User: Fold these one by one.
Assistant:
Number 1:
Amino acid sequence: MDINHIPRAPSGLSRRILACVLTAAVFCTGCLAAEPQAAQPAGSSEGISSVESKNAREQEPEAVSSSLDPEISAVQTVRSYPILEGTEEENTVVVIEAPQDGPCIFIVGGIHGDETAGWKAAERLKEEVRLTRGTLYILSPANRSGAEADQRYVVNSGDLNRAFPGDPKSSEAASRIAAAMYREIERIQPDLVLDLHESKYLLGTNQGYGLGNTLIYTDDSKISDLLLDFLIANEEDNVCSEEFALTTPGIAGSFNRVVTDQLEIPVITTETWRGYELPHRIGDQMDIVSFCLRYYQMIDG
Ligand SMILES: [Zn+2]
């Protein structure tokens, strides 16, 4: 089987048949296993503390208003708030709200600091997106110290994408960051989470650890139509410059796997292949995000 074409179904088939193809033909690679890496330092195994009630999107800490662009702020509001405030891991969540209510999507870039196209795309989105409906949360780069050092791991700690759901009291920075992220997703209850990554190797290469040019999901029950529409659009050259395939599930301890399994919130992890030039990869990341925003009718086009 040609792994680069696994989930691609002929567009002439019925949607139901395509859905079956989608479900049956996805390629299990162990996902998010990504490239073999050095062992992660052990973190605390304690669970996170109890969380706030659901549907509490208004309960962010004191919001800091900003206006990225007068033209944009005329039609959408942009604010931000800190997480892990006062710690070395402090970071900022940007919230962009359209005037009209609608779906909520949470975008995370840079869980792995050296997967540059993912977090650069998220950064660009903060500046360029023009929402017509709903709310967009952006945390990027989530692994701030790793991004600054251009390294996969959290500096002086471990792999953030093996640390979920994390522990706010852990001695490991990666675990504390994971706990804060998990808590935010649980509090906000977005309709979809996008988790932007990159891979050094194409899908199926590097002893099966390669994930380049894939979308990873753990449970497609809430997003099968979205994934199917993406595959068709990709097949017809209407989204992304490269061919993308699906893989499932996310590996244990990953953001994708834990949020999907424990919070029952669908997560799509993007993986562009680092063999291409950076602008090319950022373009594909932006295309995937834009496709999802259009699918949820949060942007025009
Ligand atoms: Zn990654």
Number 2:
Amino acid sequence: MVIRFDNIPDTVKCTNNFNPDLVDWSSLSEEDIASYFTYTDVLLSNVYLPKETIICKNSNCTDIKHKIDVSVMYNHIVTALFEASKPLCKPRKKGKARPGWNTYVAEFYAEACEATKSWAMAGKPRQGPIFEYKKHTNAKYKYAIRYINKNEQTLRADSMAKKLLCKNSKAFWKEVKFVNNCKPSLPCTIDGVSGANAIAALWQQHYNKLFNCVPTEFYKVDNVEGVSTIKTHEVYQVIQNLSVNKSTGMDSISAEHVKLASPRLAPLLHFALLPSWSMAIFQTL
Ligand SMILES: [Zn+2]
């Protein structure tokens, strides 16, 4: 069977504000993955298990308390996965690459940093050789910055020409893309409608019509037979078979969050999914 995590019942809502997109799973080291695994193991072991709900054998249960229990448990699981992945978040690189930085500035920048560090360690003196050296290296750094700012156009052209000459096409096109990175302006009028909000509403209507031309029906699963035959090892297997490198679903859990977590996750999801099957409203695919 196929479990789609974006189809987890809408009684279950994730309230986490953490942006999991910042985790670049493909760049993680083995230690990162091992620490995520260990961390999820610890956090998942603290997920509260509502015993009464878990042992409820009624596959068509409508008990509101059981519904809330499942929702709370699922949120605990999601939060545990997010918390464990927080240390893996790498801040996105800010600022833009400046032509000539490596050639004209990097050396002075490193020198100025070192000098400032030594000056701070010496108790930030206001005079003397350490202070003078810091002043001197900072001035050289600022001068280098001014130089590349003044000659940005020329340096950019030189940098691109150099990449082209060296047949470094990947870096060349990256720079071309960077230089041309200006967003196209939005049209003022579409189909006689003008104004950003009105145009947005027009597109909403358009796609609403397009995507709903074949009617889909929500149905309430109110007579579930045989679902209780799903076993924990099947949930585990499904987790193992998830494709990685995909965008997240509505609950913001990526396949990697689930796949790289401790195997404790499978029985917990099993507990969370089983009762929800009968309580939730699923959308037909
Ligand atoms: Zn129940």
Number 3:
Amino acid sequence: MIDIHCHILPRVDDGPRSMGESLTMLRKMALEGITHVIATPHCNENLPLFRKEILGHVEKLNSGIARMGIDVEILPGSEITLFNIRRYRKNFERGLFCHLGDNPKYSLLEFPWQSDRVPKGALELAQWVAAQGTTLIVAHPERTPYLRDNRDALHALVEAGAWLQITVDSLIGTNTPVAQTVAEELITQYPNIVLASDSHNFNRCSGLVAGYDAVSERFGAERAQDLKTRANVILQHLAPSPWRVL
Ligand SMILES: [Fe+2]
């Protein structure tokens, strides 16, 4: 299993506070069968974390994993928040962003939590990104007020080719009841859904099995497998990395 959205890098964003905490989380994840974790630190106005810096952090964590003999691999990525269309496009064109697996085939995009900070022209931007050959994966729309309240806007993003990432905690009800309801609605309505943990620390580390089990119970085993397969597709589009053993 691959977790495509996880704040696993120590002391980088609001994720784990130490290497020890990262490794404890990873040990737990490996035990439930997670083999790959894409590190997705925040990349936003307050914390503009770009590819160059993220690659170094990922390498360091992979070294720690190797020392501890944990059977999991960290891949580079980031959760890019869309505040400013022009700046996003400029950073994208300059190759500054760290897309999922360090490959621009898939990119994780978050909409601002405050609806009034969502820039005008987000749809046009999503269409532009799709035209570059990149599939946008919209982070946790079931938790993002703007997307929850503007289903037409969400629908248009999907029409433009975006996938939707649902967070396990939303599905199992540990976020909010609204998030759970919307998560289920979106899984019912849209085919291109992927699950991820969006873990930040050991207490917020629900893994993936609980999520796939919930999908299996409510939507059938076939749908759970479909979601797993879709997330695994990202593994086929990884940039070659020095630490990867094929
Ligand atoms: Fe996140």
Number 4:
Amino acid sequence: MLPETQINLLLIEDEDFDVRRVKNTLKPFGDRIVIRDVVSNGLVALDLLKSHPGAYDVVVMDFQIAGSVMGEDLIRKIKKVDASLQIIVITKMTVNITDYDFAERLMVAGAYWYCTKYPGDIENYIYQPTDFILSIVNAYQKKQLELESQLSKKKLERNVEEILSQRRIIGISSATTNLRRQIEKCAASDMTVLISGSSGTGKEIVAYNIHYSSQRKHENFVPINCGSIPGELIESELFGYEKGAFTGANAKKAGLFEMAHRGTLFLDEVGELPLNAQVKLLRVIQDGEIEKIGRTTKIKVDVRIIAATNKNLEEEVKAKRFREDLFYRLNVVPIYVPPLRDRIDDIPVLFDHYLTDFSSDMGKPKPTIGKNAMNIIVTHSWPGNVRELKNVVHRILFSGESVLTNHVVLNALGYAGKKGEGFSAASIEFGDPETISPWKQMEREMRERYFVYVRRHSSSDAEAAKKLGLAPSNYHRMCKELGLK
Ligand SMILES: Nc1ncnc2c1ncn2[C@@H]1O[C@H](COP(=O)(O)OP(=O)(O)OP(=O)(O)O)[C@@H](O)[C@H]1O
Ligand SMILES: [Mg+2]
């Protein structure tokens, strides 16, 4: 009956005779149930509980004691100090043993149980000693359960915090500040969200941030890439099927809607959804019920939908590739994530963030970057957006250079052979007047950047050489000298 570990009690009792009664009752179990302290005053008890967190498991208290804090008031105050503490009240045996009202008031205030004692000094024991011992053991077990549940709640919170910190949205531009505000608003509501923006802009992390900041954060976030599942399988993925629904259905399968019940379903690349699946999706969104393949009755689901697309869905609707009614159902709260080149203030911040992050991951010191090299990064057009920027940082670190020159950066940007991704030739800067570069170095940098610029705006090396007024062989040699080949 008694647990292996020791149960620590705080006894709040102001009559010596009653203290003796409790001690006598507990004596046979003295090695397991220990009265750590006896106090006769409610305020002293509260001070003791506050100054010794975790020291007591169960509080045994007389209902009526001298002093300013007693009874239900004291119960409430103890629970405020530590909600996991369990309280057993000992009351004088009242004449009316069917006073349910009194018992209820104790429980409502937060007591775990109550036991009675004989009036006056009739007995040396608490009335019904076995009940008393049992209630202490049960109270202890309840405390353990509550601690465990507090712990798992904390763990869940920590998980959510970790997920969010891994997917923190970096950036200081007004567009990104605005994006954060939109995410906050979406997290506070349960509305369907449609996130649009070109590839690599951060649509997926926006979806994660909405879910894990919302009320549904402890439930599942279920992502599905609508573009990567063959059309004929989409329905069974989304809605699942019963055993024997079709040949090959050997066991029943839960669909993603069921898995996302109470949570969020993230329909990534929703523009890729085949038309027949669009019809079914629309029906589920309208009815809040799914039709599992091979099942006659529908299943109610509570799922929040966040969709994302890098297509212009309005254009898709016009071209009849996307159902207009579904578009309106999804586009309740639209969020547009702009391309990186439209929020250039974010570029140096993101670059620095990933440079710090990845070099620490690789156990390398963080390289330094010159002003000109940073300029190249900021003026690059970033067609692949943040994803491209992350790759470039990886490539730069892979080069192993501790100082990032224009040359290293240009190489990592993979300018060679690419067309139409110019950086501004006007953005050549002379750098810090305190550290003027020698002419030779500056000349080289300018030549390098000009060559890159011209090559970008030419369809071939031969064309670039022609524009530069150089013989192809000279152009080739100079590129080599500059390390551009
Ligand atoms: N503002 C940001 N701060 C930090 N990391 C970001 C930011 N935006 C994007 N990323 C990172 O860039 C990468 C691409 O982002 P994500 O996958 O969310 O883009 P996407 O818009 O969903 O792209 P696609 O359309 O190709 O699926 C991810 O590794 C993501 O963590
Ligand atoms: Mg994505």
